[in-house]
Amino acid sequence: MNQAKINTSLFNRLRFVLVETSSPGNVGAAARAIKTMGFSELILVNPRFPDVLQRDEAVAFASGAQDILAAARIVDSVEQALEGCNFAAALSARLREFSPPLTAPRALAAQLVADASLNAAVIFGSERYGLPNEIVEKCNVLLNIPANPEYSSLNLAQAVQVLAYECRVAASEDLSPATGGEVGFQGNAASLADIDGMFAHLEQALVEIEFLDPASPKKLMPRLKRLFSRTQLETEEVNILRGIASQILNKRRRLDRS
Ligand SMILES: C[S@@+](CC[C@H](N)C(=O)[O-])C[C@H]1O[C@@H](n2cnc3c(N)ncnc32)[C@H](O)[C@@H]1O
């Protein structure tokens, strides 16, 4: 039995999100992977089979982790899966032109353990298609598991296992009290829902001043998302950006009226 001391704070702050998973066996194996490493929160976004959690194959692959399966939640959208989160990492074997900063599981795990103010999600794509760009662009980081460049796509549940393992190892190595305090943000990390709202507001303002042409948006919003994803936005900062957007919209309306 492993008696190593461990900082358990991350176990309650990290959720595993599987998007549009098709194989019940992978869902069961993912439940087992997260339980063996001490985690418990599994969320499925639009799985191929709505009854996947009860399917024999899922139950068989979960083995002793049937409690994780039973407690797993099924939701309709990534936004629902991320409710209450202020940090999200997209896992992909594929690098993309417009993505948040690239990081590796070990570095991310250390960051999540060190900063107790982070309520995080790690998001995995479907077996066939991986993660769509719209989801990757919402995330703070893109996580790539280092692998053979000629064949780097792990089985979904194995990717979950690697991530959960790295987080456990990082938690075992960091035994500082998990209170946040001097490490991490000065203010509260903005929730992902607030950041989404801020981008929608900013987009509206940019359209209003004709900086963004909705008929030909090019890559302006993905580029801005990438820019902001390089910093961990705080609630106050999101409010400032929304204030700027409001001011632009109000000023524009006043000019239109005069
Ligand atoms: C079988 S893979 C999906 C492969 C898919 N055909 C694609 O091109 O993305 C299922 C999921 O496991 C995760 N995954 C697999 N290999 C990975 C790697 N090397 N780094 C990060 N995530 C990986 C990703 O979340 C991926 O969406």
TrEMBL record:
It is found in: Cytoplasm. GO terms for cellular component: cytosol. CDD domains: SpoU-like_TrmJ (cd18093). Keywords: Cytoplasm, Methyltransferase, S-adenosyl-L-methionine, Transferase, tRNA processing. Residues 14-165 form the tRNA/rRNA methyltransferase SpoU type domain. InterPro entries: Alpha/beta_knot_MTases (IPR029028), RNA_MeTrfase_TrmJ/LasT (IPR004384), SpoU_MeTrfase (IPR001537), tRNA_m1G_MTases_N (IPR029026). Pfam families: SpoU_methylase (PF00588). It is an enzyme of class 2 (transferase). Its EC number is 2.1.1.200. It catalyses: cytidine(32) in tRNA + S-adenosyl-L-methionine = 2'-O-methylcytidine(32) in tRNA + S-adenosyl-L-homocysteine + H(+); uridine(32) in tRNA + S-adenosyl-L-methionine = 2'-O-methyluridine(32) in tRNA + S-adenosyl-L-homocysteine + H(+). One of its GO terms (molecular function) is tRNA (cytidine(32)-2'-O)-methyltransferase activity. GO terms for biological process: tRNA nucleoside ribose methylation. Homodimer. Catalyzes the formation of 2'O-methylated cytidine (Cm32) or 2'O-methylated uridine (Um32) at position 32 in tRNA. NCBIfam families: rRNA_methyl_1 (TIGR00050). Belongs to the class IV-like SAM-binding methyltransferase superfamily. RNA methyltransferase TrmH family. This is tRNA (cytidine/uridine-2'-O-)-methyltransferase TrmJ.
